Amino acid sequence: MARYTGPITKKSRRLKTDLVGGDKNFELRPFPPGQHGRRRIQEKEYLTQLQEKQKARFAYGVMEKQFVRYYQEAARRPGKTGENLLTILESRLDNVVYRAGLARTRRHARQLVSHGHFEVNGVRVDVPSYRVEQYDVITVRKQSVETFPFELARQTFGERTPPAWMHVSEGSLQILIHQLPVRAQIDVPLTEQLIVELYSKN
What we know:
alpha+beta, 9 helices, 8% strand
């Protein structure tokens, strides 16, 4: 699966949002990159909607084609399309690993999943876009438990509180999914209605 490998801080500055979380370089220069970065840009409706979609894409590490498929699936589900879209994005395995505090960033979580360090319900999964379901159990593979990333995760356990829709065991780093997240449990700085408005024009 394709992924964006360029400088994420530049994207954060362009979209005026810290897409990484705790990005010190963004905090130092929270204005758009480039020679004319400090110039005032006229905020138009389409630009605002497009930026909101790009925020979601880069925050979760999803390419445009895959993001469109997620939107189409969200639109087919009952309920609000924007909230369904965020639930789909949050239920990706790389995001679950990040939310559980086992990785510093979603990019780091994606790498850990791609390297095959996790099992879902006892089956090894190395696809970052794998979608978890209610009552799924995600565990670190026995061969990976003593490696540096997970030793560090145990040492820093509790620094970032996992969301209420999952439970993480401190010793084993096992993740239990109580339920799929609802909008009130998703703290990403996004206005999903703008994304819906953008795609509904097409």
